[in-house]
């Protein structure tokens, strides 16, 4: 059985919006086996859960969470286990374990199925949740997400070993700043965009454990994302989920998938084009929200 432990609300003003409706509160969802997740919450309305990228935390979603909440959504940002005040075992896990964490968060709200938005690695967790628990997912919104497979006839891996090595350098805080900055610019940011904003916010151990969880999980376990409709929001200059792979999901899953490309952005996407992301997300949500 999952149990929910909610601490007293700790209201904080956000930088983007100081109204009470968009103030950020936090609560905890406690699971068995020593898992306890801190969840940041804003707004009221249809439930929208935001999942961050590999080795990164809920703060990455802060720039989009306030305008989404202001548009009439109950926006939750679960902190991944092993980051911030969220705790739980990380060894020998698969994406199914991470998806179970998000299932517990959704169930804690007693609000029916949720919209699940996953950025980069978060897209794999979102699709795993939708595959394992389709009853909890109204729609998937995938930001800069690698499909996990390549187009028919393509020779090679979805993400090369060389690119994976560069990603790991980005999150290795023991490396010199100039090495990490070059790596960030190479794989996460479009030409001319400021990669230094992602020098902070990394959790190297979390990155390592999540990468191993990816490797332990067969792509077919999550590829289809259950039966939910999907927004596949790609970035123009993404080298991790490149444009030549942008239609893999729609080619295989058909009309369930809506493809949109954000210009002047790469895999980081959120710090590069937050306003464009919010606009695309709200446009899609408007077609699927409660009437």
From TrEMBL:
The keyword Zinc does not apply. Signal peptide: none annotated. Its EC number is 3.5.1.-. Gene3D superfamilies: alpha/beta hydrolase. Residues 63-280 form the AB hydrolase-1 domain. It comes from the Bacteria. Keywords: Hydrolase. One of its GO terms (molecular function) is hydrolase activity. InterPro entries: AB_hydrolase_1 (IPR000073), AB_hydrolase_fold (IPR029058), Carboxylesterase_BioH (IPR050228). The keyword Phosphoprotein does not apply. PANTHER family: HYDROLASE ALPHA/BETA FOLD FAMILY, PEROXISOMAL MEMBRANE PROTEIN LPX1. This is Aminoacrylate hydrolase RutD. The gene is rutD_2.
């Amino acid at each position: 059985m999952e149990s929910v432990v909610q601490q007293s609300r700790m209201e904080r003003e956000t930088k983007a919006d100081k109204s009470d409706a968009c103030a950020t509160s936090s609560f905890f969802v406690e699971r068995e086996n020593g898992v306890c997740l801190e969840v940041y919450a804003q707004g009221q309305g249809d439930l929208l859960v935001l999942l961050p990228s590999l080795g990164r935390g809920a703060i990455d979603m802060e720039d989009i969470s306030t305008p989404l909440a202001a548009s009439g959504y109950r926006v939750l940002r679960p902190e991944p286990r092993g980051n911030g005040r969220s705790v739980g075992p990380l060894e020998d896990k698969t994406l199914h374990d991470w998806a179970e964490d998000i299932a517990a968060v959704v169930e804690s709200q007693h609000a029916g199925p949720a919209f699940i938005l996953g950025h980069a690695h978060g897209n794999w967790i979102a699709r795993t949740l939708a595959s394992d628990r389709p009853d909890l997912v109204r729609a998937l919104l995938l930001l800069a997400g690698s499909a996990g497979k390549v187009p028919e006839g393509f020779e090679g891996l979805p993400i090369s070993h060389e690119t994976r090595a560069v990603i790991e350098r980005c999150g290795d805080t023991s490396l010199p700043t100039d090495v990490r900055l070059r790596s960030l610019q190479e794989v996460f940011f479009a030409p001319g965009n400021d990669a230094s904003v992602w020098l902070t916010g990394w959790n190297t151990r979390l990155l390592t454990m999540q990468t191993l969880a990816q490797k332990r999980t067969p792509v077919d376990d999550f590829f289809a994302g259950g039966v939910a409709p999907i927004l596949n929001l790609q970035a123009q200059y993404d080298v991790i989920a490149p444009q030549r792979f942008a239609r893999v999901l729609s080619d295989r899953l058909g009309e369930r998938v809506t493809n949109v490309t954000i210009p002047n952005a790469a895999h980081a996407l959120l710090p590069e084009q937050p306003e464009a992301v919010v606009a695309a997300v709200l446009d899609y949500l408007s077609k699927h929200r409660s009437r």
